[in-house]
Amino acid sequence: MPQRDIIPLVADMVKESEDYSNTLSADRIKANEYYDGKMLDTPSDNGRSAFVVRDVRSVVQDVLPALTRVFLASDRMVEFQPAGQQDEEIAEQATDYINHVVFPESDGPTALEDSIHDALKTRNGFLKWWYDEKTSIKVSRHTGQP
Question: How far apart (Å, rounded) are the C-alpha atoms in residues 39 and 114?
Fold first, then answer.
Protein backbone atom coordinates (compact mmCIF):
# COMPACT_ATOMS: atom_id res chain seq x y z
CA MET A 1 0.00 0.00 0.00
CA PRO A 2 1.53 3.34 -0.99
CA GLN A 3 2.21 5.95 1.67
CA ARG A 4 -0.31 8.40 0.20
CA ASP A 5 -3.05 5.81 0.84
CA ILE A 6 -2.00 5.18 4.44
CA ILE A 7 -1.97 8.82 5.59
CA PRO A 8 -5.76 9.37 5.32
CA LEU A 9 -6.40 6.04 7.06
CA VAL A 10 -4.15 6.98 9.98
CA ALA A 11 -5.70 10.46 10.16
CA ASP A 12 -9.18 8.90 10.37
CA MET A 13 -8.04 6.52 13.11
CA VAL A 14 -6.56 9.39 15.13
CA LYS A 15 -9.81 11.40 14.76
CA GLU A 16 -11.90 8.40 15.85
CA SER A 17 -9.70 7.80 18.90
CA GLU A 18 -9.92 11.49 19.90
CA ASP A 19 -13.71 11.42 19.58
CA TYR A 20 -13.87 8.22 21.63
CA SER A 21 -11.57 9.73 24.27
CA ASN A 22 -13.77 12.83 24.54
CA THR A 23 -16.85 10.63 24.97
CA LEU A 24 -15.14 8.57 27.66
CA SER A 25 -13.85 11.63 29.53
CA ALA A 26 -17.41 12.89 29.99
CA ASP A 27 -18.44 9.44 31.24
CA ARG A 28 -15.45 9.33 33.60
CA ILE A 29 -16.29 12.75 35.05
CA LYS A 30 -19.86 11.64 35.68
CA ALA A 31 -18.69 8.33 37.20
CA ASN A 32 -16.36 10.16 39.60
CA GLU A 33 -19.15 12.57 40.58
CA TYR A 34 -21.54 9.68 41.26
CA TYR A 35 -18.84 7.87 43.21
CA ASP A 36 -18.42 10.98 45.37
CA GLY A 37 -22.19 11.25 45.86
CA LYS A 38 -22.56 14.37 43.72
CA MET A 39 -25.46 14.01 41.35
CA LEU A 40 -25.26 17.26 39.44
CA ASP A 41 -27.59 16.00 36.72
CA THR A 42 -30.56 15.67 39.11
CA PRO A 43 -32.49 18.88 39.57
CA SER A 44 -33.00 20.48 42.98
CA ASP A 45 -34.82 23.65 44.00
CA ASN A 46 -32.88 26.65 45.19
CA GLY A 47 -32.61 26.75 48.95
CA ARG A 48 -33.44 23.04 49.24
CA SER A 49 -31.07 20.21 49.87
CA ALA A 50 -29.58 18.45 46.85
CA PHE A 51 -29.93 14.79 46.04
CA VAL A 52 -27.00 12.73 47.36
CA VAL A 53 -26.70 8.99 46.86
CA ARG A 54 -23.52 7.00 47.43
CA ASP A 55 -24.70 3.74 45.89
CA VAL A 56 -21.88 3.68 43.33
CA ARG A 57 -19.27 3.96 46.09
CA SER A 58 -21.00 1.25 48.12
CA VAL A 59 -21.14 -1.18 45.23
CA VAL A 60 -17.52 -0.55 44.24
CA GLN A 61 -16.36 -1.04 47.83
CA ASP A 62 -18.45 -4.23 48.18
CA VAL A 63 -17.22 -5.84 44.96
CA LEU A 64 -13.56 -4.77 45.16
CA PRO A 65 -12.34 -7.31 47.77
CA ALA A 66 -13.95 -10.26 45.98
CA LEU A 67 -12.49 -9.31 42.61
CA THR A 68 -9.06 -8.69 44.10
CA ARG A 69 -9.13 -12.12 45.75
CA VAL A 70 -9.90 -13.73 42.40
CA PHE A 71 -6.70 -12.36 40.91
CA LEU A 72 -4.50 -12.78 43.99
CA ALA A 73 -5.69 -16.29 44.89
CA SER A 74 -3.10 -17.97 42.69
CA ASP A 75 0.56 -18.35 43.57
CA ARG A 76 1.33 -17.28 40.02
CA MET A 77 0.17 -13.83 38.99
CA VAL A 78 2.25 -14.07 35.83
CA GLU A 79 3.24 -17.12 33.84
CA PHE A 80 5.68 -16.99 30.97
CA GLN A 81 5.08 -19.42 28.13
CA PRO A 82 8.14 -20.88 26.40
CA ALA A 83 8.44 -20.22 22.68
CA GLY A 84 10.02 -23.62 22.18
CA GLN A 85 11.14 -26.66 24.13
CA GLN A 86 14.58 -25.11 24.67
CA ASP A 87 12.95 -22.13 26.44
CA GLU A 88 11.07 -24.08 29.12
CA GLU A 89 13.66 -23.61 31.88
CA ILE A 90 14.07 -19.89 31.15
CA ALA A 91 10.29 -19.38 31.13
CA GLU A 92 9.99 -21.15 34.48
CA GLN A 93 12.78 -19.01 35.96
CA ALA A 94 11.20 -15.81 34.68
CA THR A 95 7.81 -16.86 36.07
CA ASP A 96 9.30 -17.60 39.50
CA TYR A 97 11.30 -14.37 39.53
CA ILE A 98 8.32 -12.14 38.71
CA ASN A 99 5.94 -13.91 41.10
CA HIS A 100 8.27 -14.26 44.09
CA VAL A 101 10.54 -11.21 43.79
CA VAL A 102 9.24 -8.43 41.52
CA PHE A 103 5.52 -8.58 42.33
CA PRO A 104 5.91 -8.55 46.14
CA GLU A 105 8.77 -6.00 46.18
CA SER A 106 6.92 -3.56 43.94
CA ASP A 107 3.76 -3.79 46.07
CA GLY A 108 1.93 -5.58 43.28
CA PRO A 109 -1.19 -6.46 45.31
CA THR A 110 -1.87 -2.80 46.10
CA ALA A 111 -1.26 -1.76 42.48
CA LEU A 112 -3.62 -4.49 41.28
CA GLU A 113 -6.30 -3.44 43.76
CA ASP A 114 -5.96 0.20 42.66
CA SER A 115 -6.31 -0.83 39.03
CA ILE A 116 -9.42 -2.91 39.73
CA HIS A 117 -10.89 0.00 41.71
CA ASP A 118 -10.33 2.34 38.75
CA ALA A 119 -11.86 -0.21 36.37
CA LEU A 120 -14.98 -0.54 38.50
CA LYS A 121 -15.34 3.20 38.88
CA THR A 122 -14.44 4.51 35.43
CA ARG A 123 -14.41 1.40 33.19
CA ASN A 124 -10.65 1.64 32.72
CA GLY A 125 -7.98 0.20 34.96
CA PHE A 126 -4.36 0.16 33.89
CA LEU A 127 -1.22 -1.40 35.27
CA LYS A 128 2.20 -0.59 33.92
CA TRP A 129 5.40 -2.04 35.24
CA TRP A 130 8.87 -1.46 33.94
CA TYR A 131 12.43 -1.89 34.94
CA ASP A 132 14.63 1.13 34.59
CA GLU A 133 18.34 0.52 34.83
CA LYS A 134 19.93 3.91 35.31
CA THR A 135 23.22 4.81 36.81
CA SER A 136 23.01 7.94 38.86
CA ILE A 137 26.23 9.84 39.42
CA LYS A 138 26.44 12.83 41.72
CA VAL A 139 29.51 15.00 41.79
CA SER A 140 30.16 17.37 44.65
CA ARG A 141 33.15 19.41 45.71
CA HIS A 142 34.14 19.99 49.27
CA THR A 143 36.75 22.49 50.31
CA GLY A 144 38.09 23.58 53.66
CA GLN A 145 37.23 20.26 55.30
CA PRO A 146 39.53 18.90 58.05
Answer: 24
How far apart are the C-alpha atoms of 91 and 71, rounded to whole Å? Answer: 21
> pLDDT-based confidence at 94, cuts 50/70/90?
very high
Judge contact between 117 and 125, C-beta under 8 A.
yes
Distance CA 91, CA 66 (A): 30
Global pTM reads 0.64
Instruction: Show the 3-state SS of 43-55.
Output: CCCCCCCCCCCCH
pLDDT of residue 86: 93
| Exposure on the CB side of residue 64, measured as CA atoms within 13 A | 21
Residue 37 exposed, middle or buried by CB count within 10 Å (0-12, 13-18, 19+): middle
